[in-house]
Amino acid sequence: SITIASTDKFLIDDAGTTKYITADQLDSYITLSDVCADEVSAGDTSSSFTTTSGTITIDSQASTTTIDGHTGVTVQSTNSGDVTLDSIADIVLDAGGADIKLKDDGTQFGNLKNNSGELRITSSSSDTTAITCTGANVAVAGTLTTAGSEVSTVGNTTALAIALG
Q: Is 109:122 a contact under the CB 8 Å cutoff?
């Protein structure tokens, strides 16, 4: 068992001429393209993929890319910029706990819940308008059950405010 220091030397045969490089110079000779993902092994400390410029791409061209954190996975932007989920196909949110929680800066403001196959959309606020739907053509299909309702007029528009309960 030895400890390699950054100033330790490695002997290199360069076309018959013996040269040496130090341990801290190795990373300038080995690039990420020299290492295959199946050569990366498990360790017992945290790991980082960091770049000071450019993009980090993880691309499994043959199958699905899976990130498994066992106790949780966080995808975040800690400095600036949005987190974008973009797919040429569908985007699937699959929550085994039946809840998809909507938060703003760590504070929950809403919830999408599977309640025995029924989609339940709830707001965390009980003293304000729970859900507002706006747009040029907003349609609601099916039976709307209300705990109370209020009709108001803004300009030439008639609005029906419904408190869902």
A: no
Closest by Cα among 120, 85, 125, 95 to 108 = 125
- Name the amino acid, one letter, at 75: V
Vertex 97 angle, CA 65 and 81, to 5°? 50
Instruction: Please name the residue that has the structure tokens 């859900």.
Output: 131
For residue 33, the SS3 value is helix
Low-confidence winner among 38-42, 86-90, 113-117 (lowest mean pLDDT) = 38-42
Asked if 136 contacts 128 with a C-beta cutoff of 8 angstroms, the reply is no
8 Å CB contact between 117 and 102: no
pLDDT of residue 157: 57
Rounded CA separation 129/123 (Å): 9
The Cα–Cα gap between 162 and 144 comes to 9
Per DSSP, the three-state class of 24 is helix
61: nearest Cα among 41, 39, 85, 37: 37
DSSP 45-97: S------SSS------SSS------SS------SSS-------SS------TT
35-59 confidence digits (pLDDT tens): 666 666 677 777 777 778 878 777 7
